[in-house]
Amino acid sequence: MQSLLALQSGKLKGAVSLKLSEDLSDFPAEIFELADTLEVLDLSFNKLSSLPADFGRLKKLKIFFCSENLFTVLPEVLADCPLLDIVGFKSNRIKTVPAKSLHKNLRWLILTNNNIAELPKEIGHCARMQKLMLSGNRLATLPQELGNCKNLALLRIPANKLHELPTWLATMPRLSWIAFSGNNFSKTPAVETLSLINWHDLEISHLLGEGASGVISKANRTMGDETSEVAVKIFKGNVTSDGLPEDEMTAYIAAGYHPGLVNLIGQIALHPEDKKGLVMDLIPHHFYNLGNPPSLESCTRDVFSPEMRLSEKQILNIAKTIASLAAQLHQAGIMHGDLYAHNTLIDEEGSTLFGDFGAASFYDKTAVELAFALERIEVSAYGYLLDDLLSLSNKPHEGTLTILGELRDSCLDTIPLNRPGFQDLVDALAKV
Prior knowledge:
- This protein is of the alpha/beta class.
- Among the domains are: 196-281, 2-Layer Sandwich (Phosphorylase Kinase, domain 1); 288-430, Transferase(Phosphotransferase) domain 1 (Transferase(Phosphotransferase), domain 1), CATH 1.10.510.
- It is 19% helix and 18% strand.
- The model has no long low-confidence stretch (mean pLDDT 93).
């Protein structure tokens, strides 16, 4: 992170990227001295509530993050930057989104955790929009015009006040990842309580990883005279871009046992800060991440290490495991919402473990048309996963992979209702 002093002294002249977090209450005018080069600007974690009227002088700006500030209105001057296509105003106090603030060039818009009750119909003019993050607001409806954003691939709308899912979602040709838990229409089923594990019987060893919803650590669990190694996830309790942590925990429990899921052992009891948590099997060391999360450039598509290559056996095992697991989830009325390679762990044999229920949502299986449509949205995500797997093949032209290519194409049909269901995919893969 750079400093305001370095900016003011001219040491940052020619910078392409700038990140300042110094309790700023006013926009530093010196930023305009970088107008000829600046493409990425991050002013998150400050005390800003407005932008200067001439903000559009930043003609080369492509990415602007201004999260954790004090804005109550999404600034209209954002639209004066002709190349700006990624905008993030997470965790402000925004109530109003003016039509003028939504430039048609927008590709990725983050408005998570604000106070927005309504979006302007002009959002439908954002034809390039691929990723829209609206969790944790006060939206009771989504504008019909949003259905004009035919490139929209990922939509996050949990923890709002929506009374129903719009019917036009079922017609979106590229929508593949959607989360909607925690709304007025959401029905979270009762799930069986797992075995309760006393916090005092766990000895936390070290951090394994941290995500938006919680922290995962390695721990030793004592049961009488026996000690075993486990993984422990403690939920943070705050709304994330994907949804509410309690919905994640409930969905994971409701998913039930599947060989492609990390096995749940129990729920945390008597946590000293009364936090919720899960105890899981420790993932074997020889498993590794299949992919990495999308980059700012790739937006909705995972990225992979250049040296990553997969055998036909690995590809087929991964494809079969994820299809089988997804079929089980949808049979239970669970939309995973984040079916991605970066949530997939594999080994050299193609053994697969899938996880991260942070974006999971429950839906009503008895609403047949809605259930059919939601499954086809997730099938599209599976199609992109197949596309990723095929791109990593060390022998891309073998017969089996040709069949997977045909399945991929059917999953990505731009008419969602023409796509197969997950059980159809399971049956087709069983013949490969």
